[in-house]
Structure formats: C-alpha cells, structure tokens
Automatic annotation (TrEMBL):
Family affiliation: Belongs to the metallo-dependent hydrolases superfamily. Adenosine and AMP deaminases family.
Keywords: Hydrolase, Metal-binding, Nucleotide metabolism, Zinc
Name of this protein: adenosine deaminase
Organism name: Microcella putealis
Domain Adenosine deaminase as annotated: residue spans: 20-366
E.C. number(s) listed in UniProt: 3.5.4.4
Enzyme class, UniProt record, top EC level: hydrolase
Cofactor entry: Zn(2+)
A single GO molecular function term of this UniProt record: metal ion binding
Gene3D superfamilies: Metal-dependent hydrolases
Length: 372
C-alpha cells in the first residue's frame, strides 16, 4: 500500500487521510501506480516515454495539463495498453483499492470501460471478472492492514463506440457480482446520450442506476440529455450547469437566478461529481477562468446543490481525494463541517441500498466527530 505526505485541513494539524470518505468518480485506468505501469509495460512490450517511475508520474501530469479533454484522454493510451490481461487487470484493481483505503476511502465506486481491454483476447465478461477479483483482493489486503473499505464497479460504455446496449447488458449480467452502476465516458461533445437511448431504456426497465459524464466538455444540452435520454441519477462533473445560473448584484448583495435545468438538478438532489484539479486540466471551467478560485464548485455548494468532490484520475492529476479536499478547503475557506457535507452528499448519492447509505453516513459522521 502506498504512503504519501499527509494533507492537512488548512490551519489545523488534522490529516485529511484520517477522515472517512466516499469516492464516486475515480477511473480505474486513471489511477495506476507509475511503478506498476513500468513493470507491466516491460512484460507487455509497451513503449514508455521513460522507465523511471517518478519521471513517468511527472510525464502523465505534464501531458494532462492540456486544457482539452480530448488531449487529456490521449494519456490513457498507455494505461489501457498495460491492462489487457487478466493478471494486469487484477493487479491494477487490487492496488487501486489499497490506495483508496490508504487515503481514508470507505466506499469507492471504480469506473472503467471493459470494451477497452479486449486487445489480448479477453472477453467482456472475463475483464469484469478479472477486475472484480482484483477489487476483492484489494479489500482483503486493506482490511488486513487495518482499513475498512467497500467498493463497487461502475461499468462504462465509450460514447463514440456505439456499443452501449452491449455494455449495458454486460453490467446487468454482473449486477449481483460487483457491478453497482453504469456510465458513459469519452469525448463528450458530439456524442450525446441519445446515441445510446436503447441502453438506457434497458437499464431503466431493470431498475439499474446510471451516472453520466456531462457538463465537462460540453454544455447545458449535454446535461439535459444525460437527464432525459440517459435518466442519470448523478452527473459526472456537471460543472457547466453553472451556465444556467445568473448571478447579479442587487443593493449590497448578490442574487442568483436558476434556470429550469439548474433548478431541476438542485430540487431533486442530483449529485454533481466535481473533480477540481481535473476540471482545470481539461478546460471544463475555462469560461470562468483558469484557477481553482474560478471554479463554480463553491457557487453551486453555496446555492445548495448536492456537490461532491472527487479525483477523476489520480495518476493524471497527481492527486488523491484528501489532496482535492485540502485544495478546495484552502481556496474557499471551508472548515471540517463543509468537508463533512461533501462526504454526506456523496454517501447519499452512492449506488447502494438505502440502509447501506444510512450506515455509510453514520460511519462518516462518527469518523468526523472523532477528528474534532
């Protein structure tokens, strides 16, 4: 299990790694350890820009700071290339869980696209089974190390590949064997959820939850499609929902007026899976600025939206969930109570039965109270 310098709540000596947390938006192929990539690449004959693990980690971070989601996604060519065998998938999944546990995560939803891992002969079902085996190994290892953690798979279909129905059927086949939800990922602009309407109809008919990347590299129409065509219960990122909020100055204060779409998302508690560092890297908030201070996360939070904080891709952003929380706490002067709200928001939005969500919330509250 990896160790790292702890991240503290600003102005305190509280290490955020100690707090129980929920991770809703974390990609399997975006969370590999650089040293693991080096070892797996050697076995698979994959060429790397460097075989020094530290240098490789820095390379991923540098290449990911492109300001474009399309360019950002190109770094995944390397990570997916070393995840084409059962052994590779199992190892990456096991280490992924170990790293989440070391960061204090007690419920983690791990999203990934099985269709991207078939190059060396595995079937779709075999990839899901391999990842599940690795996840279970990781949970066992974490618990043996004194951490408590549960995880579930979010099976993603790639937006451009038009295999949505096939991947939805795959998710349903494994719904009682580790898969807890469905997602669509990849280039957002030009590939609306309506292209996979048959997949979402199947999932809805089987009462299976979906979260959809929307409002990251495309605007309000993408979010609207995620809700109407995709029947999304959560929005992956969703930060461009702020385009439907008008803030004006009236007297000595400011007034926010919500459009119909933003009002719908807020009133129904549809969770926003924001990923601050990643949103800066991909240009998701470019219309508002280029620094964390410009991120609409705080506006959405102050207005009462169900905001959650996530990592997206820990390797590409050189981050952890504790680091993301430290960054937003420092930028927006959040205290422990604010961070608790983010975790309870995530617990409420988790793809778990209501009794499990309530138990998760209780564990989070207990852990935060111990930290005071």
């Amino acid at each position: 299990m990896t160790t790292a310098t702890p991240h503290h709540l600003p102005g305190t000596d509280l290490a955020l790694e100690q707090l129980p947390k929920v991770s809703l938006h974390d990609h399997l192929d975006g969370g590999l350890r650089p040293a693991t990539i080096v070892e797996l690449a050697a076995d698979a004959g994959v060429e790397l820009p460097t075989t020094d693990a530290d240098e490789l980690g820095a390379w991923f971070a540098e290449k990911s700071n492109s300001g474009s989601l399309v360019e950002y996604l190109k770094t995944f060519d390397i990570t997916t290339a070393v995840m084409q065998t059962r052994e590779g998938l199992e190892r990456v999944a096991r280490e992924f869980v170990e790293d989440l546990a070391a960061d204090g995560v007690i419920w983690g939803e791990i999203r990934w696209a099985p269709e991207q891992h078939l190059a060396r002969g595995l079937s779709l079902d075999e990839t899901v089974e391999a990842v599940q085996e690795g996840l279970e190994q990781g949970v066992d290892a974490a618990r043996n190390a004194g951490h408590r953690i549960r995880v579930g798979q979010l099976v993603s279909a790639m937006r451009h590949a038009d295999r949505g129905l096939e991947i939805a059927e795959l998710a349903l086949r494994h719904r009682d064997a580790g898969v807890v939800g469905f997602d669509i990922a990849g280039a957002e602009a030009g590939f609306p959820p309506s292209r996979m309407r048959d997949a979402f109809e199947l999932l809805a008919a089987n009462f299976f939850p979906a979260t959809i990347h929307a409002g990251e590299a495309d605007g309000l129409d993408s979010i609207r499609g995620a809700l109407t065509d995709g029947r999304a219960l959560r929005l992956g990122h969703g930060v461009r929902l702020a385009e439907d909020i008008e803030v004006s100055t009236e007297g000595d204060g400011q007034v926010a007026r919500l459009g119909r779409l933003a009002e719908w998302v807020k009133d129904r508690g549809i969770a926003l899976e924001t990923s601050p560092s990643s949103n800066l890297q991909t240009g998701a908030i470019a219309q508002w600025g280029t620094t964390l201070a410009d991120h609409p996360l705080d506006l959405l939070y102050q207005l009462g939206f169900r905001v959650t904080v996530n990592t997206d891709n820990r390797l590409m952003s050189g981050t952890t969930l504790s680091r993301e929380l430290a960054l937003v706490a420092d930028e927006f002067a959040y205290d422990l109570d604010d961070l608790l709200v983010f975790q309870l928001n995530a617990a409420e939005a988790a793809f778990l039965p209501v009794e499990d969500r309530e138990a998760l919330a209780d564990a989070i509250i207990e852990g935060f109270e111990k930290a005071r």
